[in-house]
Amino acid sequence: MNRTSTQLVTLATRVCPKAPPGASAPMNDITGYVMWGVIALMSLGMLVGVGGVVAGRVFSMPHASKMSVVGICVVFGAAIAYLVLPGALTGIVGQGCV
């Protein structure tokens, strides 16, 4: 590499994206609300799944119980993805500096 391309590479490694002034606090609030909503929906999904299993057993509807178990498994899969995917995305993108 010549000197000019080396200077460009070192300049590019120092470029880090940042939010416009005053945007950090609202973005943190929105992110917190979304995370809270996802956790609330997962809790609701678990509650509905358990209720479906109980109702399927009480009313002798085995297909309802089986589908409720599938729903519970989907919620568990979503919870695992909720924990794993942000770390994987950070590993791929890095800390945000190019």
Structure characteristics:
98 residues; mainly alpha
Question: Could you explain how this protein is built, in words?
Answer:
- This protein has 98 residues and is mainly α.
- The protein is built from three helices and no strands.
- α2 runs antiparallel to α3.
Secondary-structure map:
Blueprint (H helix, E strand, L loop, with lengths): L2 H10 L11 H35 L3 H32 L5
Helix pairs in contact: 2-3
Poorly predicted segments = none
What does the average pLDDT come to? Answer: 86
Task: Label the overall shape.
Answer: elongated
Q: Sketch the major β-sheet.
A: none
Number of spatially distinct domains: 1
> Which structural class fits the helix and strand makeup?
mainly alpha
Could you estimate the helical fraction of the residues in percent?
Answer: over 70%
The number of distinct β-strands equals 0
How much beta, percentage-wise? under 5%
Q: Count of helical segments?
A: 3
Head-to-tail CA distance between termini: 19 Å
Short précis:
By secondary structure, the protein is mostly helical. The chain is 79% helix and 0% strand.
